[in-house]
Amino acid sequence: MNPVEIEEAVSNLALEPFDRSEFPFQFLAAFGNKDTTIRLLKSGKSNASDVPGGVLQRNNIHIATCDVGAVDATMNALRASPRTVSAKAKFILATDGESFQAEDLTGGGTVACSYADFPDHFGFFLPLAGITTVEQIKESSFDVKATGRLNRLYVELLKDNPDWAAAERQNDMNHFMARLIFCFFAEDTDIFFSERLFTGTVEQWSARDSSDTHTIIGEIFRAMDTKSSERDAAGLPRYAMKFPYVNGQLFSGSTDVPQFSKVARSYLLHIGSLNWKKINPDIFGSMIQAVTDDAERGSLGMHYTSVPNILKVLNPLFLDDIREKLVDAGDNARKLLNLRNRMARIRVFDPACGSGNFLVIAYKEMRQIEAEINRRRGEPDRRSDIPLTNFRGIELRSFPAEIARLALIIAEYQCDVLYRGQKDAVADFLPLGAENWITCGNALRLDWLSICPPTGTGVKLASDDLFKTPLDQAEIDFENEGGETYICGNPPYLGSTWQDAEQKADLASIFDGRTANWKSLDYVAGWFMKAADYGTKTSTVAAFVSTNSICQGQQVPILWPLIARARHEIAFAHTSFKWANLASNKAGVTVIIVGLSKARPTSKQLFSIADDGTPLVKEVTNINAYLAPGADVTVEKASRPLNGVAPMTFGSKPVDGGNLFLSLEDASPPRMSPDDRARFVRRIYGSEEFINGKGRYCLWIEDADAPVAASHPMIGPRLEGVRAMRLGSAKLATQRGAQWPHRFDEKRQTGNERIIAVAAISSENREYLPCGVLPSGDIISNKCFGIFDASLWNLALVASRMHWVWIGTVCVRMRTDFSYSNTLGWNTFPLPSLTAQNKVDLTRCAENILLAREAHFPATIADLYDPEKMPDDLRRAHEANDEVLERIYIGRRFRNDTERLEKLFDLYTKMTTKSGTQKKAVASA
């Protein structure tokens, strides 16, 4: 269940008559517990409670109902219950049908309210449904409730108006929903000067059978687009004359309204009964997007971006600097005035704005700072000097673009109420301005300079705007001559594999003629390049959220030289962290934040997260394209190790059409005798077999045994199959391999070596690379890498966190998986000179890792290195290995991966310079 479904179920439960015996089970069902789970609890088989009237679900919640007035005593009993502790309950809850109390035993939060109001706290209990939330979802029950109710109305309207679901009418439907949201908000916040003016008018004047509901609403909309002086001539009905003139393009154009059924009308009236004063535009906007998107509707209520994550972008981009200037100004009236004037000319531009989250948060943060300036200057009631038109956006889809503009309008009103008071806020709110500052279009095809120009005037949109205003519309005067522009946002990522033809064409329009390798770039790279191009024409700083792949592997030498050629460099960055825009099951993509600037500050900020989870910030002189402090270098392949380690190579490549591979049945009697099996069959490992412990076998035939093998009744036909396959190849090299069909075409081992094996492809979710030791006689395919007959201390290096970080940064990715490379990852791995004692210590660490694994036989690599289930003794063995190795590097443990990379790149620069293989650093003009 998603949060919207849970909220609805909980709200329905609160409306039902309180049934003391059934409530615990009804409550659990509202949070998605299955009927079988409820039946087991009711039967007592899984109910571990020792409190009268109690229901205890292990690892979840202890609930008890009680007599009226006994809630406090029941809560004490639940806290004191030994079963609460032994069953590891996360929550306790007590209610008598009048009062309601609950406590989070892990987080320490509490709820105490009337029974009827407990649905307002549904977010408190979302962990019961397996939903791990950021704090805002708990505090935004209204936004979730409103989203759910609007979704039900939307679906019901499309059921009765299928033509409104067609592509040609989608914009009309979206615009209609935006108008409704404004009306609900306006009637609850005094904007309409009368409580429930919109909902009450529809309820009073429209027929109960809903036959004329669309007409009544259409006339209300027409009134809000008609000036007072023109109303008599407009022939508006009496009920519509009460509504103020709104305009602002929100109610201009067609006043068509879809037909309402009785059910849809009841939904509308119910939505209007909600308290829309509680709307949170920076969260609500994101969630409401899902209402009009069939693909996203299943995750209603989870589409939001946490404010702390947005501030990770906005703070170092420009807000921190403004706050520092506010501190410097103190109570100096002149300095405060200068800062306020500066803020009035700052523009924030999000060229992938969605429903406007970044713009709304930026606006609200700036209004907070401005309010403090006004307070210090003794002007607390002063009207804001920060215009909404300075918060510009581009969004591909029409509905989010409408919601972005509406969210900013609502944010402005709420800020005015907060900082100036309700009376002044209402007086200044209507009519809305007619300017459009959110453009609906393709950001990678539009000219950003035409949408957010360098100086005061000259805006002319390059595409139809949000409300289909003709292209010859009047230009917008931003009145910001000499002002600052900051570009920000969270553009779509889309790796090259997932891009459709249109998106490929978007990238081609930017990168064609700059590089021949642009097809390997993520879609988000287009925004970085457009921002750098924009910055060549006007002073600006840009910061985007991105997947970390643009600063790893093959994308680094493609994208970042182009950014440097545009005279831009990384001004600040945040290394990898989870961007939680989906609240379910800890979902979220791993992202980075990269700030670009043409200016070259002497000190740059690199933000990261320590191994213990605490945030870190480091002042550095340079941040390279791998997001490591240090010189601008590009790691290049090396044909041999540069670091004194043993050589590593691919395993043997069969090129056999599958004929050299055997099942266990093929290698067993009666098809093959034990002697023949011992002579001709070996166990073989690729990445899949190595990680998951799968048994796979191959024919491994020495040249001297080839004649005997060819005459074998089961083997001979297979060798003929190999010969035929190779002869039929279009490649001359493969055709030559037909001369030796009995062996792998690319044979890289004798078959008698001990192998330190490394999986070629592995998940980035494991904390260590899949590696290990295979005994003499085993074979590895070209899907594995091997170090043959080498000292065991080499395994300690491969198994280290240091090597994991290096591989994850410099090697090519296969989607989100690591794609290991001996030439790019192992041969270049920066390593200090190892003493004999170092090698002894590392050998012992490698042995301890292998012994810890052996203790859990027959667990596979996949079993042992599951991040949630890694055995404690194995984790300790790896920690000890990391401790020994990292002390060799710097005499102590590194604080986090950023520190590890900093040291690795420093050593790489020295190592490659010394060996004469250092490639030219990224050029900068």
What does this molecule look like?
- The chain is an alpha/beta fold and 925 residues long.
- Helices cover 40% and strands 13% of the residues.
- It has 34 helices and 25 strands.
- The strands form five sheets. The chain has a nine-stranded mixed beta sheet with strand order 8-7-6-9-10-12-11-13-14, with helices on both faces. A five-stranded mixed beta sheet has the order 1-2-3-4-5, sandwiched between helices. A four-stranded antiparallel beta sheet has the order 15-23-19-21.
- Helix 9 runs antiparallel to helix 10 (213-223).
- The two termini are 54 Å apart.
- Residues 297-303, 456-480, 581-587 and 917-925 have low confidence and may be disordered.
User: Sheet bearing the most strands, described?
Assistant: 9 strands, mixed
Helical run tally: 34
Distance between the termini: 54 Å
Strand order of the largest sheet: 8-7-6-9-10-12-11-13-14
Can you tell me the overall shape? Answer: globular
Mean pLDDT: 89
- Work out the number of β strands: 25
Strand content: 5-15%
Summarize the structure in short.
With 925 residues, this protein is an alpha/beta fold.
Describe the secondary-structure layout.
Layout: H1 3-15, H2 23-30, H3 35-43, E1 54-57, E2 61-65, H4 71-80, H5 82-86, E3 91-95, E4 99-104, E5 110-114, H6 135-138, H7 141-160, H8 170-188, H9 197-205, H10 213-223, H11 231-234, H12 262-272, H13 281-289, H14 307-329, H15 333-344, E6 347-350, H16 357-376, E7 391-395, H17 398-420, H18 422-429, E8 438-440, H19 448-451, E9 485-489, H20 501-511, H21 525-537, E10 540-547, H22 556-565, E11 569-579, E12 589-597, E13 604-609, E14 615-620, E15 649-650, E16 661-662, H23 674-680, E17 681-685, H24 687-692, E18 697-699, H25 706-710, H26 715-727, H27 732-736, E19 755-759, E20 761-763, E21 771-774, E22 779-780, E23 784-788, H28 793-798, H29 801-810, E24 813-814, E25 817-819, H30 822-826, H31 836-854, H32 861-864, H33 872-890, H34 897-915
Parallel strand pairs: 2-3, 6-7, 6-9, 7-8, 9-10, 11-13, 17-22
Antiparallel strand pairs: 1-2, 3-4, 4-5, 10-12, 11-12, 13-14, 15-23, 16-18, 17-18, 19-21, 19-23, 20-25, 24-25
